[in-house]
Amino acid sequence: MRLLELEFENFKSFKGHVTVPLGTGFTCITGPNGSGKSNITDAILFILGSRSTKLLRARRLSQLIYGYQEGKQRKSAAKHCRVSMLFDNSDRYLSIESDLVKFTKSVRLRGDKPVTSYRLNDEPSSASEFEALFSRAGLYATGYNIIQQGDVTQTSLMSGTERRHKLEDVAGITAYDQRLRKTRSAREHVGADLALLEERMREVQRLLRQLEREKRDAERLEAILLQLQENELLRHWRQVLDLGASLESRREVVIRYREELEELESELKERQATIGTLEHEYKNVEDDISAAGGDRARELQQQLDEARVAQALAQSNSEQAQKQLAELETMRKTLRTEHHTAAAELKMLRKSLDTIRSETEMLVEQAAENEAELAEREGAAASGSQEIEAQRATLDELRQAAGTLEMQRHRLEGEREQLELQLAQTREQAMGNEQLLVAAQADVDDVDFHLQDLQLGRKSAADNLRKVTRKYDKLNGELAQVSEALERAERELHETSVALAAEQAAQRTQDELGGYARAVQGVLAARDAGDLSGIVGTIAELGRVDEEHALALEVAAGGRMQSVVVEDDAAAGTAIAFLKQHRLGRVRFLPLNKLRRYRPRANALLLLKQPGAIGFAQELVQFDPRYADAFGNVFGDTVIMHSLREARTLLGKGRMVTLEGELLEPGGAMTGGSSPRARVHFATGDRATLDELATLVKMAQAHNLELGATASTLREEVAIVAQAKAALESECATIQTRVTDYDSTVSRSAEQLQQVANALVTRQGAVTVLETELAQREKALVQLQGEIVTQHESVSQAAEQLQQLTGGTEAKALAQLQETLTTLRDELGKTRAEVARLEAGEMPATAEAERLATALEQNNAGQRETQKQHATERKLARKLAQQVTSLEREEHEKFEELDGLRQRRDSLRDQLGEQRTTLAQREEFGRGRRTAIDELQLEIQVREPKLVEARQRLPKNAKQPSQVGGAEQLEVQRESLEGQRTRLGNVNMLSLEHYRQEEERLARIREARKQLRKEVRRLEALEAKISARKLERFTEVYKHIDENFQATFTELAGGGKAWLELEKPDAVFEGGVSIKARMPRKRLFPIELLSGGEKSLVSMAFIFAIQRYDPSPFYLLDEPDQNLDGVNTEHIGRAIALQSTVAQFLVVSLHHAALREAAHVLGVFMADDGISHMHQIHDVDSFIASLPVGDVAA
Questions:
Q1: What is the pLDDT of residue 802?
Q2: How many CB atoms lie within 10 A of CB 123?
Q3: Of 186, 394, 251, whose CA–CA distance to 1018 is shortest?
Q4: What are the tens digits of pLDDT across the range 1006-1053?
Q5: Which of 20, 492, 933, 977 has an alpha carbon 20 to 30 Å from 618's alpha carbon atom?
Q6: Are the beta carbons of 1168 and 26 closer than 8 angstroms?
Q7: Are strands 2-9 and 589-591 parallel, antiparallel or unpaired?
């Protein structure tokens, strides 16, 4: 096979139609950089099926079209591009019966989207057909025969694993991988089939187990059907026996009712007599109540109010006197203490005054003696000199003036001290008056507060009294209304009780004539007689239904309508013992404490959603929520349907009953026809009337009791309010008395407050006057002190002058006497001042002691008067308290007498109502018994033919069984058998044949499983064999390519050595293939450390080694000598030329050596308009010589 020509149109930089003829051997394409040389290799890659536009050096297919610019519309831009490759296939290298094979691939723009199309020999084709043909010929866009720009160096840089994959492609062991994948896939499929067979085998085994159960179910079904036939016969016998027993019991009831009527006649006479006696007694009690509640009660209440007011007033006055006594006693103690203190102080003052006066007299005597001695000495000294005499006279005058001034000073100091004492006392009194004023004001405020509190209390008491009076009147009115309502309620209760008694009598007759089993009747009778406790009632009694659903619900419940609901299992046990003791038969009990809570199953809920479904049976029954579990037990998942037509479509999906009474079982059984309704019925209209009347009686009784309780409560409230009213009236009178008393107290307190305020003003004025006088005395004393100092200085000067005149010893003696005299005079001045101070304090102290003595006497007199008043008020209060106690006792006795009469009246009224109601009920009971006797006799006449008919329905010559269970028991047995039959479902009678067939199928599956396991083992062996052959093939190829690589490298490099090396010789396909190379005249280096040219040389040697082992029809090399120097380029060119003898080479190169070695040279250049052009070069040397330096590598 050979590539004859390459043809393309509007491809990348080539505009229009371009044909590239390709000869045999070595064809070299050259041209300047950017001229479009590599676009030719892109065209070949485009045809060979490169799916990556990146390999084509374009971002998208539309960029392969000449002139295309994204986002711009150019008039010269083409709308499509096309590439064709023409092969010579005369050797049928391509798997197609044609000497010439033309592959064409084009891209056309539709709007902005490129569309790719394929043609083979001008016939429509596809990418998959192209790929299949090229793959079988060993041509790939990414194959080892296609070397793009940079791929030569990249080959040397690929990883060992990538290099191993490249060798695997050359070795063609991809087919082994495919076979391995197919083998493994086949093994996996066989494994899946084996697992499927295992699952089918388990399914068959499950089916066999199920068929085995069906076989057992068929046997059980046959036994159940026999038991059902026996049950049907026993139920017929039970009907005959029940009818006989029913007739016998009715005859007994008639006899018993007649005896009861005879006893009832005498009972009614006794009750009528009792009612007459009670009515007479009731009238007498009413008269006594009217008499006891007359004028005496009102008079007693008035006297009690007046006594309480007087007692409160006396008690208040007594308490006030007691308080005043306490205050006077406290004041007396204070005055006595103050009086004793003042007397002691006055006594001490007078004693001190006497002492000071004695001292003053002694000092006066001593001063007089000294003055006489001084005068004598000074006279003796002055006798000889007129000047000394004159000086002594002057000194005497000065001394006399100084003494006068000293006397004035002492007098002023005494007056000042007296004024200070008076000022202190006056201030203390003023402070006392202020305290008294504060206390008096507090007393006034306290009295005002109490007065306001009393006034508020009086207002509140008056308001409360008005409210209580209104409430009293209102309660009396309500009591009258309630009494009237109570009388009406008693009449209504009587009427309703009469109606209820009539209905109950009729209902009892119906129950006794009804279809309850003998055992159920016995339990109900024992319940009504009080012999059994905890018996709630039958399902028929406890449920109420409407007429529309009655038939369907009775059929759904069946015999379970006679089930008896009891409070707990203990009550059920007691009732069962009762039945055994009296040999009445069996009853189905439903203990409320043991029943499981009913929850509908999923299939029942789905059935309820189907067309024609009305609802669950128990949802159509009205009952007390306490009995929900009992009704759930009876009805279960039964669904009520409109009609048989709708129910039939759902047959087998659950238990259903139609409105006309057809029963459809889950197992597929259907029961219907014209059978009569059940002998026991749910309550409908008649029962509803009875329940309604019973409810009305209960409501009337509750209303009657409520009204009676209300009347009793109102009477108690009236009594309480009457007492509260009397208490409030007494409280109002007491408060008024205290208000009056506090008014006088307020007046007295105001007067005292005014007196204290006036005294305080007076004291404050006196303080001001004393302060003024004291200030004047202080001023005069300061002035006098200055004069005294001046006078003493003058005396001292005169004395010194006199001493100077006298001179000598006499002068010293005079000076000493003068000093002694001065000292005595100073002491005398002090004692006189003290005397003046004490004399000034004696008068106020005496006045204070006298004032305190007078106040103490007044306090004693006030205490005596207050004690007398207190004793009088206390005595009066005791007397009034005794009077109030007596009146209250009389009032309490009167109240108890009235209360007892009222209670007696209420009791008589209740007894009358009860007797009248009972009389009416018993009369109605008698009428009901008479009616019942008539109905029973009629029922006996009706049932006797039915008993004959029931006996006729028994099989001929049928013998009565020794034991026949009760109807309830037989019905329960039937339902149990039907339940077992239902639980068995649709029994497959052909289950044995199915079982045999499934056993044979299981044997076949086991045989197939055996074969599949054998196939798995075969495929595992085949996989191991293929893996071994794959390794053998790879080893062989690896060995040859390694030898070729060593030889080729030596040829290209002109020496040196290079070889291939497995990274994991023991696990070839888990490791890679590395290259070891040693360039000529160099040591061994890893390939990663070689230069770019050396790496290119190694890569080319590796590529040529592969080509020698597995030649390709043609090779495409894009600048394989890009990084080589001139010498190595020549080596590469000669190597390619040598290889081109056996294969076609298409090489893009710029080197002279490649051009010279090539058999054909094509030149590519780009014009100024950006369009690439191509021409064939025949004279290579002339072409090289004509090129500018640098355009083509040397």
A1: 59
A2: 9
A3: 186
A4: 888 788 778 777 777 777 887 788 788 888 888 888 888 888 888 877
A5: 977
A6: no
A7: unpaired
Long-range contacts of 7-10, Cβ-Cβ distance < 8 Å, separation of 24 or more: 7/83, 7/84, 7/85, 7/86, 8/43, 8/81, 8/82, 8/83, 8/84, 9/80, 9/81, 9/82, 9/83, 10/65, 10/66, 10/67, 10/78, 10/80, 10/81, 10/82
What are 1193's strand-pairing partners?
Answer: 1151
Task: For residue 306, give every residue at least 6 positions away whose Cβ sits within 8 Å of its Cβ, in sequence order, or none.
Answer: 733
In 3-state terms the chain splits into helix, strand, coil percentages (rounded to 5) of 70, 10, 20
| Model confidence pLDDT, tens digit, residues 426-466 | 677 667 666 666 666 666 666 666 666 666 766 776 777 77
- Radius of gyration of the chain, Cα coordinates, nearest whole angstrom: 73
DSSP line for 252-307: HHHHHHHHHHHHHHHHHHHHHHHHHHHHHHHHHHHHHHHHHTSHHHHHHHHHHHHH
Interval 835-859 mean pLDDT: 70
pLDDT recorded at residue 85: 92
Instruction: State the Cα angle at 481 between 475 and 484, rounded to 5°.
Output: 140
pLDDT > 60? residue 52: no
Contact indicator for 523, 575 with CB cutoff of 8 Å: yes
User: Residue 1018, exposed/middle/buried by CB under 10 A (0-12, 13-18, 19+)?
Assistant: middle
Burial per residue of 180-219, b for 16 or more beta-carbon CB atoms within 10 angstroms, e otherwise: beebeebbeebeeebeebeeebeebeebbeebeebbebbe
pLDDT value of position 512: 47
Contact 1019, 188 (CB under 8 A): no
Which of 167, 171, 102 is CA-nearest to residue 133?
102
Question: How does pLDDT run across 887-937, given as a tens digit for each residue?
Answer: 767 766 766 666 677 677 778 777 877 777 787 777 877 877 788 788 788
Bridge pairing between strands 113-120 and 100-110:
antiparallel
Tokens 């000067």 -> residue: 797
Q: Are strands 2-9 and 1073-1078 parallel, antiparallel or unpaired?
A: unpaired
How many whole angstroms separate alpha carbon 546 and alpha carbon 526?
30
pLDDT band at 521 (very low <50, low <70, confident <90, very high): confident
DSSP states of 932-994: HHHHHHHHHHHHHHHHHHHHHTSPTTPPPPS----HHHHHHHHHHHHHHHHHH-S--TTHHHH
CA gap 36, 778 in Å, rounded: 139
* Least reliable range by pLDDT among 345-354, 576-585, 605-614: 345-354
* pLDDT value at residue 568: 92
Predicted pLDDT at 677: 47
Candidates 363, 348, 360, 365; CA nearest to 831 is 360
Q: Look at strands 2-9 and 17-21 and give their pairing.
A: antiparallel
| Per-chain mean pLDDT for the chain | 76
423 pLDDT band (50/70/90 cuts)? low
The pLDDT assigned to 572 comes to 93
- Report percent pLDDT > 70 for the chain: 71
For 655, the 3-state DSSP assignment is: coil
Cβ-contact 107, 53 below 8 angstroms: no
Alpha helix positions (H), 514-546: 518-529, 539-542
In angstroms, the CA 1194 to CA 1191 distance is 9
Beta-sheet strand order (sheet of 100-110): 17-21, 2-9, 80-88, 100-110, 113-120, 123-125
> Token pair for residue 297?
């009660």
Q: Are strands 1160-1166 and 1057-1062 parallel, antiparallel or unpaired?
A: unpaired
Cα gap 455→264, rounded to integer Å: 72
Do the Cβ atoms of 1177 and 1158 come closer than 8 Å? no
Strands 613-616 and 639-641: antiparallel
Structure tokens at 112: 């902005």
Question: By the 8 A CB rule, do 108 and 96 touch?
Answer: no
